[in-house]
Amino acid sequence: MAADGIKIVKEALEKGFASKRAKMFSFAEKSGYKNFIRLFVISDFFRGKNEKERLGEVLSMLEENGARGMVTKLSLCVVMTAREYEREFGRGVFLGVDLHKTARARKSRPKVHRLTQVRAAK
Fold this sequence. Notes:
Elements: H1 2-19, E1 25-30, E2 37-42, H2 51-64, E3 74-80, H3 82-89, H4 112-121
Parallel strand pairs: 2-3
Antiparallel strand pairs: 1-2
Helix pairs in contact: 1-2
C-alpha cells in the first residue's frame, strides 16, 4: 500500500510542478509507522515563501493532481530550496534509500554513572 502511495504522490507532484514550469526533486519513503509516508520536496520554486506557504503549495498540488487521499498518509513533509538543502545535508549528498542512515553520526559520550561507580570502588 505504501509503495503505491509513494508512486501516486510522486506523480502528482511531477504534474503540479510541470504545470507551474518549475524544476523539482522529491524523495519519498515509507515511514516506520503503519503505512505513512515521509516526503522531501526540493525546488527553487519555494524561494521567498515561508514554510506555511510552501507546505500549502505542496498539499494543493497533491489535491489537484489526484493524490487527495494520500495527504492524510503523510507523516513528514519537508519542503526546501536547493540552497537550504545543500546547507542542511551538504553538497553532493543525495537523499536516497533509508533516510535514517543519511543523518550525521553522533559521538557517543561515556556513561558518567558507570565511571563514578568504578572510581568509587578503587
